[in-house]
Amino acid sequence: MLANPAVNDLPTPPHDVLASIPSPSVSSFQLGPLTIHFYALCILAGIIIAIVLTNHRLTKRGVPEWQVLDIATLAVPLAIVCARIYHVITHYTDYFGPGRNPWNVFEPGSVWAIWEGGIAIFGALLGGVLGAWIMCRRMGIRLTALLDALAPGVIIAQACGRFGNWFNQELFGRPTTLPWGLEIDPNNPAFPPGLPVDTLFHPTFLYEVVWNGLGCLVLLWLGRHLFFQWGRLFGMYLVWYGAGRIVWESIRLDPSFVVLGLRTNVWAAIGAVALGVLIIVVQRLRHPEPEESPFLKGREPEAEPAD
Q1: In a designed cystine with 177, which of 13, 79, 139, 208 is the match (CB 3.0 to 4.6 A)?
Q2: Of residues 76, 69, 38, 40, the one with CA closest to residue 154
Q3: Measuring CA to CA, which residue among 126, 118, 120, 127 is closest to residue 158?
Q4: How many domains is the chain partitioned into structurally?
Q5: Is 162 within any annotated ligand binding site?
Q6: Spatial distance between the Cα atoms of 148 and 279, rounded to a whole number of angstroms
Q7: Average of per-residue pLDDT values in the chain
């Protein structure tokens, strides 16, 4: 069932708020014949930060410099493709139905129009991990070592991506009277009909940015001081991100399919928390010892001969 909160169910804040967060008036700009979307730039910035931070963390463990780029050549495209597939499946009424032409790349609302927004992190995680596993097997690197090195970078990348939602004025929360309420253009198709034009909304993008930023610091500390290895740091990432996403997803207004009273992404976030806890517990029992090498057994690089 598709959920879209009725206007009558939403509170109408008073109009005497003293402060608010404005939304950008533009979401793209022209560069010659190209249209550059800030949404895409935010995602690109996140990918670059994640790759640089992961490279730094892997090289500290003895992995050759920038081998993470080789892994990213498959992991990143698979992450984007699966992120889009996940979004289209969980919002298929936005793309399929009478009068829609979802397969025409030149039509608004096409399944191919990823520049319009609509990629899901849970799909990205599935595709990215699959691509990383394939490349790690080819390169002789433990997937657990890569995922642990990646965890702080990927949560920061998600924070960068949320700024794209701010530029697009999308995925905001319920109306609020808080001084950090988010302004949304009343002509925006996502603006709930029937509400006053100066209604402010919960800036869920900002909540997630702050939560993910804190999560990055927590993950870096855990990895340095408690030596979360063998995939346990990635498990902690799933727990931290999933716990926050349960909250932010529960106050968002954008339509979403509901299963047993919860939005599909809430279920996905609950699944992420459960999977993260399972990874931490199982890997702690299987590998109480430190993960001394980031390489698969027998795939360690040969030492260079001394001069």
Answers
A1: 13
A2: 76
A3: 120
A4: 1
A5: yes
A6: 12
A7: 87
CA-to-CA distance for 4 and 233, rounded, in angstroms? 36
In degrees to the nearest 10, what's the CA dihedral of 187, 255, 205, 166? Answer: -30
Higher pLDDT, 153 or 257: 153
Distance between alpha carbon 54 and the CA centroid of its chain, in Å?
A: 16
The residue among 177, 219, 234, 223 whose CA lies nearest residue 200 is: 177
Q: Is residue 295 part of a domain?
A: no
**How far apart are alpha carbons 21 and 98 in whole angstroms?**
38
Domain holding 102, by residue range, is 38-286
Say how far apart CA 11 and CA 195 lie, in whole Å: 9
How far, CA to CA in Å, does 245 sit from each of 52, 187, 240? 25, 28, 9
DSSP 81-140: HHHHHHHHHHTGGGTSSTT--TT-TTSTT-TT-GGG----HHHHHHHHHHHHHHHHHHHT
Mean pLDDT of the region 246-255: 91
Q: Has residue 32 been placed in a domain?
A: no
Q: What Cα–Cα distance (Å) separates residue 287 from each residue in 58, 201, 251, 284, 298?
A: 20, 46, 39, 5, 19
Q: What is the mean pLDDT of residues 206-210?
A: 97
What does pTM read for this prediction? 0.87
Q: Are 264 and 256 in contact (CB under 8 A)?
A: yes
